[in-house]
Amino acid sequence: MSETKKYRPNVAAVILSSRYPLVCEFFIAKRNDMDNVWQFPQGGIDEGESAQIALYRELKEEIGTDKIEVLCVYPEEISYDFPKTIAKKMYPFDGQSQKYFLVKLKSNAKISLNTKHPEFDDYKFVKRKEIFELVTYFKRPPYQKVINYFKKEGYL
Length: 156
Hints:
- The chain has a single domain, classed as Nucleoside Triphosphate Pyrophosphohydrolase (Alpha-Beta Complex).
- About 25% of the residues lie in helices and about 30% in strands.
- The protein has helices at about 50-65, 85, 130-135, 140-150; strands spanning about 5-15, 25-30, 40, 40-45, 70-75, 80, 95-105, 120-125.
- The model has no long low-confidence stretch (mean pLDDT about 95).
Protein backbone atom coordinates (compact mmCIF):
# COMPACT_ATOMS: atom_id res chain seq x y z
CA MET A 1 0.00 0.00 0.00
CA SER A 2 1.48 3.35 -1.03
CA GLU A 3 1.62 6.27 1.35
CA THR A 4 0.30 9.71 0.34
CA LYS A 5 3.05 12.28 0.17
CA LYS A 6 2.75 15.54 2.08
CA TYR A 7 3.85 18.75 0.34
CA ARG A 8 4.58 22.04 2.08
CA PRO A 9 2.63 24.97 0.54
CA ASN A 10 5.23 27.42 -0.71
CA VAL A 11 5.84 30.51 -2.84
CA ALA A 12 8.90 31.24 -4.98
CA ALA A 13 9.98 34.53 -6.54
CA VAL A 14 11.70 34.79 -9.92
CA ILE A 15 13.11 38.28 -9.39
CA LEU A 16 14.24 40.55 -12.19
CA SER A 17 16.45 43.54 -11.44
CA SER A 18 15.05 47.06 -11.50
CA ARG A 19 16.79 47.52 -14.88
CA TYR A 20 14.20 45.22 -16.54
CA PRO A 21 13.09 45.36 -19.38
CA LEU A 22 16.24 47.11 -20.66
CA VAL A 23 18.40 44.40 -19.07
CA CYS A 24 17.07 40.95 -18.20
CA GLU A 25 18.99 39.72 -15.16
CA PHE A 26 17.77 37.33 -12.47
CA PHE A 27 18.36 37.44 -8.73
CA ILE A 28 19.70 34.25 -7.17
CA ALA A 29 20.96 33.78 -3.62
CA LYS A 30 23.30 31.31 -1.91
CA ARG A 31 21.88 29.48 1.10
CA ASN A 32 23.85 29.79 4.33
CA ASP A 33 22.87 26.32 5.59
CA MET A 34 24.04 24.23 2.60
CA ASP A 35 27.29 24.11 0.70
CA ASN A 36 27.18 26.24 -2.46
CA VAL A 37 23.39 25.92 -2.98
CA TRP A 38 21.93 28.77 -5.03
CA GLN A 39 18.22 29.34 -5.53
CA PHE A 40 15.40 31.85 -5.98
CA PRO A 41 13.93 33.25 -2.75
CA GLN A 42 11.07 31.08 -1.51
CA GLY A 43 9.17 30.22 1.62
CA GLY A 44 6.16 28.62 3.21
CA ILE A 45 2.62 29.87 3.03
CA ASP A 46 1.25 30.25 6.56
CA GLU A 47 -2.18 28.93 7.55
CA GLY A 48 -4.89 31.30 6.22
CA GLU A 49 -2.39 33.35 4.19
CA SER A 50 -2.76 33.95 0.45
CA ALA A 51 0.14 33.10 -1.85
CA GLN A 52 0.63 36.78 -2.75
CA ILE A 53 0.74 37.89 0.90
CA ALA A 54 3.23 35.06 1.60
CA LEU A 55 5.36 36.28 -1.34
CA TYR A 56 5.70 39.80 0.10
CA ARG A 57 6.34 38.49 3.63
CA GLU A 58 8.96 35.97 2.51
CA LEU A 59 10.82 38.52 0.39
CA LYS A 60 10.96 40.94 3.33
CA GLU A 61 12.17 38.12 5.63
CA GLU A 62 14.76 36.69 3.20
CA ILE A 63 16.14 39.60 1.19
CA GLY A 64 15.10 42.58 3.30
CA THR A 65 12.71 44.14 0.79
CA ASP A 66 9.20 43.68 -0.51
CA LYS A 67 9.45 46.58 -2.96
CA ILE A 68 8.45 44.62 -6.05
CA GLU A 69 6.04 44.72 -8.95
CA VAL A 70 4.35 41.40 -9.80
CA LEU A 71 4.61 40.90 -13.57
CA CYS A 72 3.15 37.41 -14.00
CA VAL A 73 2.07 34.37 -11.99
CA TYR A 74 2.64 30.79 -13.11
CA PRO A 75 -0.89 29.38 -13.51
CA GLU A 76 -0.49 26.25 -11.37
CA GLU A 77 1.54 24.95 -8.46
CA ILE A 78 4.62 22.84 -9.13
CA SER A 79 5.42 20.07 -6.67
CA TYR A 80 8.76 18.40 -6.14
CA ASP A 81 10.22 15.94 -3.65
CA PHE A 82 13.09 16.85 -1.36
CA PRO A 83 16.32 14.90 -1.79
CA LYS A 84 16.76 12.40 1.08
CA THR A 85 19.41 14.57 2.77
CA ILE A 86 17.00 17.52 3.01
CA ALA A 87 13.84 15.49 3.67
CA LYS A 88 15.05 14.62 7.18
CA LYS A 89 15.25 18.33 8.10
CA MET A 90 11.84 19.11 6.57
CA TYR A 91 9.82 16.35 8.27
CA PRO A 92 6.82 15.84 8.10
CA PHE A 93 6.96 17.13 4.51
CA ASP A 94 8.13 15.01 1.58
CA GLY A 95 8.55 18.03 -0.68
CA GLN A 96 7.08 21.37 -1.61
CA SER A 97 4.20 22.57 -3.75
CA GLN A 98 5.25 25.97 -5.05
CA LYS A 99 3.42 28.93 -6.55
CA TYR A 100 5.84 30.94 -8.74
CA PHE A 101 5.73 34.69 -9.25
CA LEU A 102 7.73 36.69 -11.80
CA VAL A 103 8.52 40.01 -10.15
CA LYS A 104 10.59 43.10 -10.84
CA LEU A 105 12.44 44.96 -8.11
CA LYS A 106 11.32 48.57 -7.83
CA SER A 107 14.06 51.15 -8.36
CA ASN A 108 14.03 52.09 -4.66
CA ALA A 109 14.39 48.48 -3.43
CA LYS A 110 17.39 47.85 -1.19
CA ILE A 111 18.45 44.24 -0.78
CA SER A 112 19.80 43.18 2.60
CA LEU A 113 20.63 39.61 3.56
CA ASN A 114 21.23 40.72 7.14
CA THR A 115 17.68 39.93 8.22
CA LYS A 116 16.27 38.69 11.55
CA HIS A 117 16.81 35.04 10.53
CA PRO A 118 19.29 35.11 7.61
CA GLU A 119 18.88 32.31 5.07
CA PHE A 120 21.37 33.54 2.48
CA ASP A 121 24.96 34.72 2.68
CA ASP A 122 25.46 35.94 -0.89
CA TYR A 123 23.46 36.97 -3.93
CA LYS A 124 23.98 38.06 -7.50
CA PHE A 125 22.13 38.99 -10.65
CA VAL A 126 22.74 36.62 -13.54
CA LYS A 127 21.68 36.01 -17.14
CA ARG A 128 19.11 33.28 -17.80
CA LYS A 129 21.62 30.58 -18.83
CA GLU A 130 23.73 31.19 -15.70
CA ILE A 131 20.79 30.28 -13.46
CA PHE A 132 21.07 26.66 -14.52
CA GLU A 133 24.84 26.60 -14.06
CA LEU A 134 24.48 27.73 -10.42
CA VAL A 135 21.20 26.48 -8.93
CA THR A 136 21.04 23.18 -7.12
CA TYR A 137 20.16 20.15 -9.26
CA PHE A 138 16.71 19.37 -7.83
CA LYS A 139 15.43 22.90 -8.46
CA ARG A 140 16.43 22.97 -12.13
CA PRO A 141 13.34 21.20 -13.58
CA PRO A 142 10.75 23.49 -11.92
CA TYR A 143 12.85 26.58 -12.67
CA GLN A 144 13.12 25.59 -16.33
CA LYS A 145 9.38 25.05 -16.50
CA VAL A 146 8.45 28.46 -15.06
CA ILE A 147 11.10 30.38 -16.98
CA ASN A 148 9.95 28.78 -20.23
CA TYR A 149 6.39 29.80 -19.38
CA PHE A 150 7.34 33.42 -18.59
CA LYS A 151 9.32 33.51 -21.85
CA LYS A 152 6.37 32.12 -23.85
CA GLU A 153 4.15 34.77 -22.26
CA GLY A 154 6.53 37.47 -23.56
CA TYR A 155 8.14 38.60 -20.31
CA LEU A 156 11.65 37.22 -20.88
